[in-house]
Amino acid sequence: MSDEVSEVLDKSVGHEKIPLDEVVNTYITIRNEKERRAREFQKKDQELKSDLEQLEQVMLNSCNEVNADSIKTSRGTIIKSLKENYVCSDWSNFKDFILDNEAPELLQQRIHQANFKEFLSSRTDEGLPPGISSMRAFSIVVRKPSKSTNLV
Questions:
Q1: Lowest mean pLDDT among 2-11, 55-64, 83-92
Q2: Could you write out the DSSP letters of every residue in 30-50?
Q3: Which of 13, 99, 122, 132 could make a disulfide contact with 128, Cβ separation 3.0–4.6 Å?
Q4: Largest Cα–Cα distance in the chain?
Q5: How far apart are alpha carbons 59 and 80 in whole angstroms?
Q6: Residues 6+ apart with CB under 8 A from 90
Q7: Contacts 24+ apart (CB under 8 A), 25-29
């Protein structure tokens, strides 16, 4: 726990209530700092990824020039490999193909949360389909005050 959080929480020693305006202020301060650090990290990470891509291109060109799948150096071995990804441009047609060929294993097993929630909302009497469970948890959202907001 950071000193900033400890300081706010220490104010609620005993049976006194935690001053929520201070809790919210601390929360927003920490969230803003976290976002700033994340942006800073993303920027530096993108620079490093770009550097690596340029070096990978040099190494790929070197493998291609000597027609090699690998090149051993004193600092490490370069290994050229083929990565292949598949992309669907016609989901309706592909869905028919999956059903016709009984090949659901060609898809990843994941539930589209928003679509499933909508599906369930029209079938409230039926309950959850077999093999499906639901996990729920409350969460907190903190918004900065707008200039026209009256405090309670």
A1: 2-11
A2: HHHHHHHHHHHHHHHHHHHHH
A3: 132
A4: 76
A5: 9
A6: none
A7: 27/142, 28/142, 28/144, 29/4
Position 102 scores a pLDDT of: 96
Q: What is the mean pLDDT of residues 103-132?
A: 91
Query: How far apart are alpha carbons 149 and 24 in whole angstroms?
Result: 15
Task: Report d(CA 86, CA 116) in Å as an integer.
Answer: 25
Task: Pull the structure tokens for residue 148.
Answer: 């026209």
Distances (CA, A) of 73 to 57, 76, 77, 80: 17, 5, 6, 14
What are the beta bridge partners of residue 70? 79
Distance of CA 50 to CAs 44, 62, 149, 151, Å? Answer: 10, 19, 45, 48
| Whole-number Å distance between alpha carbons of 143 and 36 | 17
Q: Which two tokens stand for residue 46?
A: 């993108």
H-helix segments, 66-128: 91-100, 113-121
Token pair of 53 as six digits: 């891509």
Distance CA(70)–CA(78), nearest Å, equals 5
- The CA distances from residue 24 to 19, 21, 78, in Å, are 9, 5, 52
